[in-house]
Each structure stands twice: as structure tokens, then as C-alpha cells.
TrEMBL record, chains A, B:
It holds the Pfam family ArgJ. It catalyses: L-glutamate + acetyl-CoA = N-acetyl-L-glutamate + CoA + H(+); N(2)-acetyl-L-ornithine + L-glutamate = N-acetyl-L-glutamate + L-ornithine. Substrate binds at T146, K168, T179, E259, N378, T383. It comes from Amycolatopsis suaedae. Gene3D superfamilies: ArgJ beta chain, C-terminal domain, L-amino peptidase D-ALA esterase/amidase. Pathway: Amino-acid biosynthesis; L-arginine biosynthesis; N(2)-acetyl-L-ornithine from L-glutamate: step 1/4; Amino-acid biosynthesis; L-arginine biosynthesis; L-ornithine and N-acetyl-L-glutamate from L-glutamate and N(2)-acetyl-L-ornithine (cyclic): step 1/1. The lineage of its organism: Bacteria, Bacillati, Actinomycetota, Actinomycetes, Pseudonocardiales. Keywords: Acyltransferase, Amino-acid biosynthesis, Arginine biosynthesis, Autocatalytic cleavage, Cytoplasm, Multifunctional enzyme, Transferase. This is Arginine biosynthesis bifunctional protein ArgJ. Catalyzes two activities which are involved in the cyclic version of arginine biosynthesis: the synthesis of N-acetylglutamate from glutamate and acetyl-CoA as the acetyl donor, and of ornithine by transacetylation between N(2)-acetylornithine and glutamate.
Length: 383, 383
């Protein structure tokens, strides 16, 4: 039941006709309280979609009663008319729920640069309000899918409180958030500061370390709504850890469903002088098309890993680097190590370890391989 | 006759057997003087190949008498044994030509992480020295090819002096040089300072603005050798302009032969607050896999261009950006402009113009689309 697993939430997912496929495309999640504490993290892309511009304003109060989400159109680069559509959506939700428009977060996903059909959207929102229910979580999760092949949901239980979540995103997954909409709900009674800190820490270690194709979206939003309906206030460390754990689960579901990918690649950079150094090296590797093509070809091409590491300013000596594929150290001290024939890359999961021998810090980045299917899907998406 | 077009140069290209295909793989270019002035630019990758480590030392004197180049192996990440192979190559060339090893630049290209077969290389160098001739330029240009489908050569004539050049490179083309070996020769009588300034300026505006796949090589070398045999000393502006023009020609040949590419894309960023801003935006676009896939799909997806621009710190207002594909302004003021149906992307040449409306500076970046053929070629290259 995901976002409706915690007490105090209702949700729905309906078909408004925004998607040519006729699949569900409008979702609504409502927090019935008693608390309306919320926290959100948005894309750091400077070219933000209209719903992000709107929702950033809403979230200044750190309170939200509802979130309305649509697939079938990102409402991005659609100017004042597009902003008007977003605003009208929030007003309509507010009207149906007898709350204020300033309490309604709006999220959109789909093609950018085209106006949403506001009549269809309005009708969809009205229907979504009618269909709200305490077991509407799965329907909502389905309605936010775009090129996703399956809906992404997760639930975690604390002591006397629950955390639920749904996510969408299958391409444009990159740091500073993936193309991704995530709604988390909890019935824990937490204050706005705690919710904000927990969400930021969770994002930093999970969604921000997904780098599927290096492309940063314009619509990314991660929203956490807290109803307080359980009456339980967990200690902050416990709360933060459960939020992080649930975000990790959703992030891995996103990675596993990335557009056209054959392999899920975990890049662990160890013995770095700083966490930032480890991240820089991990990201440089995750963004190398040559490396990603090699993994698609089941080729443990460690030379392309060193060539990527060499583009960073991280502290290391090129002649000291070790690299392993799936635990086989094919590069030792910047030279050929164990025979590459010992590496088997036929499975979906690929692990790459890079030892910088420059300190005690480490970081993990998750990415995918670059495949013919990725090229196909992204050359045909808007046509 | 390219590198042997100017007076004072001999060259050759032979088959040493380093390439499984049995095609030519060792080239030698010799400057018979009277001058031995030279300038070079190397990859800025910190993980440099052995020939680059050697050649950087050679070029400290800003003089060179010969360059020996091999395809069939990059001699990169091959440790002390690999460096020994490079050193022995230079010694052998020096021995054959009765010059010093410190006057011999060495370049290698091919797969990284594997030792070169030094016996074959030595035999090849001996043969190349035998075959040196004043019309050996084309043979040399052919011997440095890897995945190139054709050799790249160009010649320019000054008043009483000549400039020739050859290049190889078809993948891993990225800023701070492409995977690319370039040898330029001239019989102009220029001093080392002039040669160095002219070469750096030319590289900055040509090779450094190629960004085929965002991957920076470990072996990139651009070498300019000046024999002074014409006895003519052109003024520096004229000399610099001709070097730039010839480098532009070679860069466009590299772009046109990029691995698996269907389209050559020129990204011009205009009305930027600074040249660096224009470059940052241009590079961000050139590195967006989603944009590159869209061009492959003949889709003028300007949303992906704005999304890329939004990841930079360049000065601009997102709501003011204009974007054109092949002269059709599909985005005006951050919103849909002329109908995308007016854009025809069936030809190989695609031009993208982004107007930042933030100043008077501009810059051009050249890239390619991302295709199934690119993925295929780079997933199969080493296997």
C-alpha cells in the first residue's frame, strides 16, 4: 500500500488521457493529519519546470496537505501558460479538499517543451479526488510511470510508526537528483527540522549517487509528508536511518529499471583522501560512455576506468591505482594484474572497485551500461 | 603529400605486425632541417601513456628531429616495462638517423593496458627508417590509423612556405585534446616561442573544441616540427592563422569520421557574458547523451538542450533562452517557438544555436550524435 501504508494518508491514481497510451496518468496523495509537516528536495537544474517553481514556493512553509502528480507531460519550458496550468491544478485540488492552494505540491513528468492539456488534467484531478482511498497507494504509484516498466514502491516499519514511498524514473538519472518523482509518507510525529534533515541526508546518500546517464532533469522532486497520525516520535537517528534505507530501496529499483540498461553497475572508490575525491572519481567513471559501452560488451576494460580517473583532480598517483571487476583485480599498480579472462560480466550486477591508495575515505556511485536499447529508446521517445 | 609537403621532411609508413589486420602500423617523420624547432601539446589526462611521459621530456628542449608513431597499441598503463619499450624505440630511431634519442618524440595509439610487442616494433622502426622518403607523407598518415575509416591529411601554402599535417582519431574525442595524434610540419623559419604560441592558439580553437564522446584520451599528442628549409619567416599572425586553419581542417576530418556517428553537430552558443560561459554551455550540450540520441533520431528536442544548459553556472535567464536547429528557432524565450516539424535533420550536418542573451561573446563546439553503431563499436573494440 506504500504511500498509504502509514496512517493518515489517502491516495488515488486515474486516467486523464494525458498519455496517448490511455494508461493512468494523474495521482493524488493527501495527508489527513493531524500534522502537515513536510520536507522536499528539488532538482538543482537552473532550468526548472513550472511545477518545481510552484512547489518550491509551497514548501517554504515546510507544510503540505496534498501532492498532485501527472505523467504524460513535464510542463517544462512552457512559459506563463504552463505556470498557469500548474497553478490551476493546485487550486482545483485545494477546492476539492477544502484546503489552501498553498498547501498543494505539484509534480509533472513526461516530455518537456509542450503544454499540458489543462482540460484533461482538470477532469483527471476531479476524478482523482473522488477516488481517494486509504488503499490507493499502488494506483498512485502506477499513475506516475513514464518509460518505467514497473511501478516502484517500498514500505518500512518503525516501532509504532510506518514509512511508505513511491517513485518513478527510468532515464535522465543523474546527480543532484535523478529524473525522478518520489513521494514519501510517514505517520511518525516529527517536526519540520527533523523531516528536512532526514530527507536531505537520505537523498545525499541514495538518489544523489545514482548516475544512470549523466543527464540532470528539470522536474525532480522528492517530497516527504508527515501525518503524525501514529502519535509516535522516533528519535532522529532512527528516523533518518529508516528514511535513508527506504530511499536506498527506491533508488535501487530506479537503477534496475533504467532505460535500455543490461547491467546495474556499482562503482566503489576506496582509500580516497576525501569523500569528495571518491565521489569525483566514481562520477567520472559513471559518465564515461566508453566504459559504459565496454560493460555492455561484457569487457572488463580497466584502461577506460583509469582514463576516467585521470580527468579528475582527486588525490592519487596514476602508477599506484588498483581496479577490480567483480572482485578480480585486473589492474594492479596501474598495470595489468590478474587476467581479464577471469572476469565474468554475463550477470546483470557488475561491481567495480577502484583503490586510490590515498587515504581512508570511500564512496559508492550506481550507474548503468550504455546499450543499443538506450540509444533506441532515447532517439525515439518524442517522435 | 601532407607532412612531406614542406621542404626538409621525409616520412614513411610500414607494417610491423602490431595490428592483427596486417595493415601498416609504424610511421616515421624526420625533420632534416636546417632548423629543429618544435612545439607540442599533450593530453591533460593525469593518467598518461608511456610515450606521452617520454615525449614531454623530449619537448622540454623545444626541439625535435623525428617522431615515431605506432598504431596497434597505446603502450598505456603498462608500467616500467612499457616505458622501456618507448625508450628503446627512441634509441633505435636515434641510432638509425644518427641523432640523439632526446630528439625523438614517440607516439602510440590503440588499446590501453597491454604491452606492445617490442620485437615487432623494433623491426618496424628499422624498416620505417629504410623507407623514409620525401613523398612518404600519405604512407605515414595511413600507418597511424586505428578505427579511422580514412586517413586525415591537409596542406596549406603561405608565401614561399608550406604547412602540412596528418591526424588520426575516431573515438574518445574530447576536450583538452581528442584521442588523437597529430603531426604538423612546416618549412617556415620560426622560433620556438612563435611555434609554441601558434600551436597552442590553434589547438585551443580547434581540437580542444571537439567533444565527440566526452572521453579524454591518455595518448593525445599534437606535434609541430619546423625545418626552416624555405628560408622564409612569415609574420606571426599569418603563421598562427594558417596553423589554426589547417588544424580546423584536420579537426573537421576527425569529426566526420567519428566512430559510429550519423551526424556532425555544430553547437554555437552566442550572446554569452563570456567565452568561458559559451564554452561551458556548449560542452554541457555536447555531453548530453539524451540530446545526442535525439539527434540520432532526427528529433529537434530543444528541451534536452535547455536541460543541459541548466546544469551550468553560465550567466543567463532560463526564461529568455532561444534555441535553433538548422536555423529554425524551435524555442523562443524558453518556450516553444517555430514548429519542430519545420526542422529537417536527415542530413549529416546539424547546427544548433543557443542564444543566451547575456552578452556579446560566443563559442563553437563540435560533437557527434550517439548511435547504435557507436555503442556497438565501443562494446566490441577490445574483444
Amino acid at each position: 500500500m506504500t504511500v498509504t501504508a502509514p496512517q493518515g494518508f489517502r491516495a488515488s491514481g486515474v486516467t486523464a488521457g494525458l498519455k496517448p497510451s490511455g494508461k493512468p496518468d494523474v495521482a493524488l496523495v493527501v495527508n489527513d493529519g493531524p500534522s502537515d509537516v513536510a520536507a522536499a528536495v528539488f532538482t538543482t537544474n537552473r532550468c526548472k519546470a513550472n511545477p518545481v517553481l510552484w512547489s518550491e514556493q509551497v514548501m517554504r512553509s515546510r507544510r503540505a496537505r496534498a501532492v498532485v502528480l501527472n505523467s504524460g507531460g513535464a510542463n517544462c519550458y512552457t512559459g506563463p501558460q504552463g505556470f498557469q496550468t500548474t497553478h490551476a491544478s493546485a487550486e482545483l485540488v485545494a477546492d476539492k479538499l477544502t484546503i489552501g492552494a498553498g498547501e498543494v505540491v505539484v509534480c509533472s513528468t513526461g516530455l518537456i517543451g509542450e503544454q499540458l492539456e489543462s482540460d484533461k488534467l482538470s477532469a483527471g484531478i476531479a476524478a482523482a479526488a473522488e477516488w481517494l482511498s486509504a488503499d490507493g497507494g499502488p494506483a498512485a504509484a502506477e499513475a506516475i510511470m513514464t518509460t518505467d516498466t514497473r511501478s516502484k514502491q517500498a514500505v518500512r516499519s518503525g516501532e509504532g510508526w510506518t514509512l511508505g514511498g513511491m517513485a518513478k524514473g527510468a532515464g535522465m538519472l543523474a546527480p543532484a537528483l535523478a529524473t525522478m518523482l518520489v513521494v514519501l509518507t510517514t505517520d511518525a510525529a516529527v517536526d519540520a527540522d527533523t523531516a528536512d534533515r532526514a530527507l536531505r541526508e537520505a537523498c545525499r546518500l541514495t538518489f544523489d549517487r545514482l548516475d544512470s546517464d549523466g543527464c540532470m532533469s528539470t522536474n525532480d522532486t522528492v517530497l516527504l509528508m508527515c501525518s503524525g497520525a501514529s502519535g509516535v516520535t522516533p528519535d532522529e537517528a532512527t528516523f533518518t536511518e529508516l528514511v535513508r534505507d527506504l530511499c536506498h530501496d527506491l533508488a535501487q529499483q530506479l537503477l534496475g529499471d533504467a532505460e535500455g540498461a543490461d547491467h546495474d553497475i556499482t562503482i566503489e572508490v576506496v582509500n580516497a583522501a576525501s569523500e569528495q575525491d571518491a565521489l569525483d572519481v566514481g562520477r567520472a567513471i559513471a559518465r564515461s560512455n566508453l566504459f559504459k559501452c565496454a560493460v555492455f560488451g561484457k569487457d572488463p576494460n580497466w584502461g577506460r576506468i583509469l582514463a576516467s580517473a585521470g580527468t579528475t583532480n582527486a588525490e592519487f598517483e596514476p602508477g599506484e591505482l588498483d581496479v577490480a571487476f567483480n572482485g578480480v583485480w585486473v589492474c594492479r599498480g596501474g598495470e595489468p594484474g590478474e587476467p581479464r579472462e577471469k572476469v565474468d560480466l554475463t550477470g546483470r550486477a557488475v561491481s567495480v572497485t577502484v583503490d586510490l591508495k590515498a587515504g581512508g575515505e570511500s564512496a559508492t556511485i550506481w550507474t548503468n551500461d550504455l546499450t543499443n536499447a538506450y540509444v533506441h529508446e532515447n532517439s525515439a521517445y518524442s517522435t
